[in-house]
Amino acid sequence: MIRIVTDSAADFTLAQLKALGITCCPIQITFGEDSYADGIELTQETFWSRIMSGENPKTSQPSPEAFLSIFEEAAGMGDEVVCILVSSALSGTLQSATIARSMMDDGSSVHIVDSVSAACGEQLLVRHACRLRDEGALSAGEIAGELVSYRSRIRIYAALDTLEYLARGGRIPKAASGLGSLVKLKPIVTVTPDGLVGMAGKGLGAHRASQALISLIAAHTIDPDEPIYPLYTYDTENCSAFVRKLQQTGVACDMDNACAIGPTIATHIGPNAYGLAFVEKKL
Prior knowledge:
Structural class: alpha/beta
Mean pLDDT: 90
Strand content: 15-25%
CATH topology of the largest domain: Hypothetical Protein Tm841, Chain: A,domain 3
Shape: globular
Number of strands: 13
Strand order of the largest sheet: 10-9-8-13-11-12
Number of domains: 2
């Protein structure tokens, strides 16, 4: 049997993890002295309540011991593991998993894949791994190899409502955040090929940001045979309006497949962000 393992940055719900047969190793979210296992102990409501009251959480990767427990249980049952994790450029989670594998008597059955992404992008890669597992034609090592090819086609673009949370986390100077708020600057971010969050554009005001985001997406040929996920933080209003505009351009997406970005990534981008995760068509 092949086990699919991921972390909570992929933003699966508990129901989705169960339905898809995925094991999740949670990232820790800490508010002061309160520490929560992301996606298990921390609800979206509690997270956003504390964030919007001005608290600044910290995130920390799972320990090697947390991964070792998962890997050894699988090995004890004769299972192979495909472990797909948040971008190593954004988190030390993959490093913890690699250390855990090295602690095993025989780690050859554990295949670790850097998603070079996060949130819906990571989720797309994990879901693809599940499809390959369920088809039953490939070994765990072969699935890991297929994922490396597939991940190069995953794209994420998102418009942020504010620069405040990037400044809180030290990603940009606080002065730049204040100036951006004055001129109603809406940054557009993407996940770069090396797995970092980078600026892809900007718009002055919500309408121009939405149009700029649509233009960036239109530069790619979306694979219609792969999932398309609208994404949002906190509230769906901005995302719903964006999806209606996308549908008018012929993009086949809807809010039924929308993905709520969880605490691991939302900590840094704040509420009311919206965007799209998709797979680019093979050339």
